[in-house]
Amino acid sequence: MPYRPKDIYRGRRKFKVPLNIFLFVFAFLLIGAVSLFYFLQQYAVYDDEGAHLELPFGRKEEAPQEDPAVVQPDPTFEPVDVQVIWEDPDFEDVDLGGWEDLKPIQGRFIPIAEVTGGGLEAAVNSVVTGDYNAAVLQLKDASGRLAWPSAAATAVSYGTSGVTDVSAAVAALHDAGKSAVAQISCFTDALLAQRNWTVALVKDGMSYQDGDGRSWVDPYNQTVRTYITDLAEELAGMGFDEIILADLEHPTTDSETGFTYTTQLRTSPDPVVAVCQMGRRVALALEGTGTAVSVRLNGTSLRQGLGSQTGQDIGIFWRLFARLYCPTDPSILANDMELALDKMNAGEGDVRFVPFIGIVPEVGDSYVITS
């Protein structure tokens, strides 16, 4: 009887089970090795010695590197608590000089309307051919409008520049051996206060205007101070021999309510500090340029002794500025000179005190004719 294949007994292959185990273990190890490889990559370090591993449990803590530029405190000193006290600047020792080589000035005042209205050339010619040794050009008045096309950042930003080229006037004066003097208003500036209200001096919640209708800017404001300094430096660069700071004062008021400033002050408001700091800043900025810095006094403040309110401390002004110009008239000139020279501490009064007056005065060698 023939046999059929399915009737034949075949024994089980004994090597199949070990092979399966081997393949399982190999796959497990392979997966583990790949996982370990990628895991250890975060601890791989490459340096000059090649590539190696720095495992967390084998890493040594390095001492922090000290910055040689940082001075470490002496360990023998112990920290102490201190109280910082802000005090008002002391101007008693301020003495900027700059008046030693000054000569008497006999000048003619040229108002800004004449400078910008087409009369500048004729006015300068009157100085060149007349009995004057200087022309005083008003280049910024209380309106805030500049006579010349200034490149100062604030002037450009708020459109306060003019269009008159005054460089030809400066050159003509110098060619004739005359001095060119520029006068600019400082803390009265209607245009800047209107176009940038953040710098305006505030009283009763509104931009302050005095009884004469003049708008004031904050004498503490850094934008204002930078603006004035930039203008002075620009004029010095144009060749002006002297710059007169007009309206360098703090307004006074009879009202019980005070002023609101745009700057947070560390000390109580002090007009003398505000005004003298501004004057000192300009004088230092122009130091070494050959351009003298002078100031135009408030005649009423001088005569009524209001220096502590207006900030125009005459004793400090004599140390800050080359000359002190004062609007006056023949009937009170002698009194004004006496009041100013009483606090003078250096130089010659006939050279450094200059009246703005309508006619040639009978006393003093220096003057500026305003008519």
Give a brief rundown of this model.
This protein is α/β, with parallel strands linked by helices and 371 residues long.
Furnish the topology, listing elements before pairings.
Layout: H1 16-40, E1 44-47, E2 50-53, E3 106-110, H2 112-116, H3 120-129, E4 134-140, H4 153-158, H5 167-175, E5 179-185, H6 190-195, E6 202-203, E7 206-207, H7 222-237, E8 242-246, E9 259-260, H8 271-285, E10 292-296, H9 299-304, H10 307-310, H11 314-320, E11 324-327, H12 333-341, H13 349-352, E12 353-357, E13 367-369
Parallel strand pairs: 3-4, 3-13, 4-5, 5-8, 8-10, 10-11, 11-12, 12-13
Antiparallel strand pairs: 1-2, 6-7, 6-9
Care to describe what's here?
The chain is of the alpha/beta class and 371 residues long. It folds into two domains: 13-58, no CATH class; 106-369, TIM Barrel (Alpha-Beta Barrel), CATH 3.20.20. 33% of the residues lie in helices and 15% in strands. The chain has 13 helices and 13 strands. The protein has helices spanning 16-40, 112-116, 120-129, 153-158, 167-175, 190-195, 222-237, 271-285, 299-304, 307-310, 314-320, 333-341, 349-352, and strands at 44-47, 50-53, 106-110, 134-140, 179-185, 202-203, 206-207, 242-246, 259-260, 292-296, 324-327, 353-357, 367-369. A hairpin with a 2-residue loop joins strand 1 (44-47) and strand 2 (50-53). It is elongated and about 135 Å long. The termini are far apart.
Which architecture of the largest domain per CATH? Alpha-Beta Barrel
N-end to C-end Cα span:
155 Å
- The average pLDDT score comes to 84
The first-level CATH class name of the largest domain: Alpha Beta
**Structural domain count:** 2
Order of helices and strands: HEEEHHEHHEHEEHEEHEHHHEHHEE
Percent of residues in helices comes to 25-40%
Parts with pLDDT < 50 across at least 5 consecutive residues: 69-87
Radius of gyration: 40 Å
CATH homologous superfamily designation of the largest domain: Glycosidases
- Specify the biggest β-sheet: 8 strands, parallel, barrel
**Number of β-strand runs:** 13
Give, in spatial order, the strands making up the sheet with the most strands: 3-4-5-8-10-11-12-13
By secondary-structure content and strand pairing, the structural class works out as: alpha/beta
> Count of helices?
13
CATH fold call of the largest domain: TIM Barrel
